[in-house]
Amino acid sequence: MMQVALRRIWQVALLTAAQVLVCNHFHLFGYATPMIYVLFLCYIPINANRVATLCWAFLLGFVIDLFSGTPGQASASMTLAAFAQAPLLKAMAPKDRAEDFTPSFRALGKGSHTVYLLVLTCIHHLAYVALEYMSFFTLLDALLSLLGSLLLSMVVMLTLETLRGRRRRQQLPAD
User: Fold this and answer.
1) Average pLDDT over all residues of the chain
2) Residue 42 and residue 22: Cα distance in Å, rounded?
3) Where would you tag: which of 18, 96, 110, 123 has the fewest CB atoms within 10 A of its CB?
4) What is the pLDDT of residues 134-146, one digit of tens each?
5) SS3 for 37-81, per residue?
6) Minimal CA–CA distance to 165: which of 98, 117, 122, 97?
7) Number of other CB atoms surrounding residue 46 within 10 Å
8) Which of 63, 88, 83 is nearest to 13 (CA)?
9) Nearest 10 degrees: CA dihedral of 120, 151, 10, 174?
10) What does the alpha-carbon distance between residue 88 and residue 59 come to, in Å, rounded to a whole number?
């Protein structure tokens, strides 16, 4: 239990640092900003406590809000995405999965894992952009921001997931 909490704290700290120190300063064409902290939800196992998952997601979003100057956007968006995470994972996971199934490229397969990550990121980004723009007068700007950020976030997150998978394969002992 304590080991899981320490791992979550490490993930929150690492993703917050990456988002605040690197990604928040990258604005492609003034619209697209990668939001990689959504990747946190992809590390949550299928049997995780729903209330704890919502709390962790809110905490991560709150910390991002504090450092980014976005009053409640990240915390509300992460909480909504966390609410959708468990049912989405149950729908995407194989039927013969283990009790403590954790999503990854290897466990879900590259296609299913990419779709899982895309849907979670889309839910987050839709909420984030809706809270940011809150107007039909800037619909084109909101759509450009949504699509640009979604595309850029997916590229960065899939790259990170690929690198994470390679590192894990290198750490496995040879048979």
Assistant:
1) 83
2) 21
3) 96
4) 766 778 888 888 8
5) HHHHHHHCCCCCCHHHHHHHHHHHHHHHHHHHCCCCHHHHHHHHH
6) 117
7) 18
8) 63
9) 100
10) 21
